[in-house]
Design brief:
alpha/beta; Rossmann fold; 2 domains
Amino acid sequence: MTKKLKIALVHDFLKEYGGAERVVEAMHDMWPDAPVYTSFVDYNLLGPHAERIRKWKIVESPFGSSWLMKKFHSPLRFLAPLVWNQFDFSKFDMVISSSGWYISRGIKTNKPTIHICYLHHPPRHLYGYQTAMDWQKYWPIRMYGHIVNHFLRMYDYETAQNVDYFIANSEETKRRIEKFYRRDSIVIYPPVEVNHADLRFKKYDLGITNYYLVVSRLARAKHIDLVIKACQELDKPLVIVGKGREENYLKSLIINHKSNIRFLGEVSDDELPSIYQNAKALVFPSEDEEFGIVPVEAMG
């Protein structure tokens, strides 16, 4: 009789629903009995996806219940090694980490447990790529960040050597894994729903068609402010789907303008196809994107 593998999933944190969360949800669909280990969960920020994620068996780190961790996880990123050292994976045959900003592949596993890391990207703030926050804007934060990042780069490299197998989400990520970690990897692209015509979905009636569309986390590195300013200048309708820390700033850009720009916030997966179908074009201004799920999804 074949022994059933005991599998655990690991993800940085569950405080938003973007491309990385779509990937870990696809993994959970494949292994629905697998627990999901994470640094913390904030269901209030997961929008319409929270109901599904609440059904998972989630194991938070001891720091997960702290409001400080949830609110200040970025300046407290030096705690990442402590967070991932808290978990014991000795009872599992295989652990799959879905890793990015918070270095969840820093978990410790011992033989015979196999650790496979699905890497969305090496932490951008450690290697000079643009990040969601402009942390270098103020010199005290810049000094603090440079000191912390120096030690986290060493930790990032060291933990990369402990992974048994790397999977990259794109050729670009594969190149970065080789550049920063001196490790080989295989590429498996993220799962993307492209057969919208074969699905039953809810219509989302905006009352307009032929609008330009942005579907994104509202983060600085996504450059959504440029799209807003361009549509204002050209007097073109724009619809923005998503939430994030830049939301208030982006909304402030249209306060003093007679504008046909709409923020829809988070929308459910069964409503999104109709929003794609009625758009004139998708605008994807993100910089240094390793793999953009949204453009592929929009072409479905």
